[in-house]
Amino acid sequence: xxxxxxxxxxxxxxxxxxxxxxxxxxxxxxxxxxxxxxxxxxxxxxxxxxxxxxxxxxxxxxxxxxxxxxxxxxxxxxxxxxxxxxxxxxxxxxxxxxxxxxxxxxxxx
Length: 109
Description:
Layout: E1 2-5, H1 20-24, E2 30-32, E3 38-40, H2 51-55, E4 61-64, E5 75-80, E6 84-90, E7 96-102
Antiparallel strand pairs: 1-4, 2-3, 4-5, 5-6, 6-7
């Protein structure tokens, strides 16, 4: 599996001192390039934990699945909502399926 960042979608988390993916990555692999777009320092060092995928507010980051696990070209994106994460998987034919994971706890609980 690998992380892919779409520079056409990434807005670099404008207005923040560091991008959200930079802040959340446990391996310190995400960073902003000179053009303020997010990138991965070393794909081979990535743990594929998907923290950056879930944290990206504009869905510019996706987890590419290996063709052995599904079909060539499959990808996985997450949308983080207040009380859940919505994972959407696409196969090579463009079909998609959503999986909703409820948050374990909310602030104030």
